[in-house]
Specification:
Number of helices: 10
Helix content: over 70%
Number of domains: 2
Shape: globular
Radius of gyration: 17 Å
Order of helices and strands: HHHHHHHHHH
Strand content: under 5%
Largest sheet: none
Length: 149
């Protein structure tokens, strides 16, 4: 959350958290004992909230090469101690997020946008929702991520 707050502003992130909690509350009330997290994750309102947040994040990454070091440092400085990890391995004590891992992470976070921008209808919807300037920034970020190693 710290990274998102620093990229987009704490108040902005708080608005998304409140909206997400409200959706969660409504889904849980509707489903009761039949509640399933998959239904929450597939909720169109939740997906729109995530997209809105990622569109704001994309704007902060207009210069991926300059910006990449900051989230790596933030993540690496806040890693849990190795004994708290659920995975194991010989190099676990020395593991840190490297540039290739960050690029992979960003590619995954923006993969829905890649899919939407590849389709004319959803690309038009994105332009309507975020504006042409934001869509250009998102498209350029995805292109830079695809070229990065």
């Amino acid at each position: 959350m710290l990274a998102l707050e620093q990229l987009t502003g704490a108040e902005f992130v708080q608005q998304f958290q409140v909206a997400g909690r409200n959706v969660l509350k409504n889904v849980r009330e509707k489903k009761g004992a039949d509640f399933n997290w998959t239904e929450f994750y597939n909720d169109p309102v939740i997906n729109d909230l995530v997209d809105d947040l990622m569109a704001a994040v994309a704007w902060s990454f207009r210069d991926v090469d300059r910006r990449a070091q900051w989230p790596m440092n933030l993540i690496n400085l806040n890693l849990a101690p190795p004994e708290d990890y659920v995975f194991e391995g010989s190099g676990i004590e020395k593991w840190t997020l490297q540039r290739t891992g960050l690029i992979d992470l960003l590619r995954a976070l923006f993969s829905d946008f890649r899919d939407k921008l590849a389709q004319e209808d959803s690309s038009r919807e994105m332009e309507h929702r975020y504006g042409q300037k934001a869509c250009v920034a998102i498209r350029q970020l995805i292109e830079r991520l695809d070229k990065s190693v």
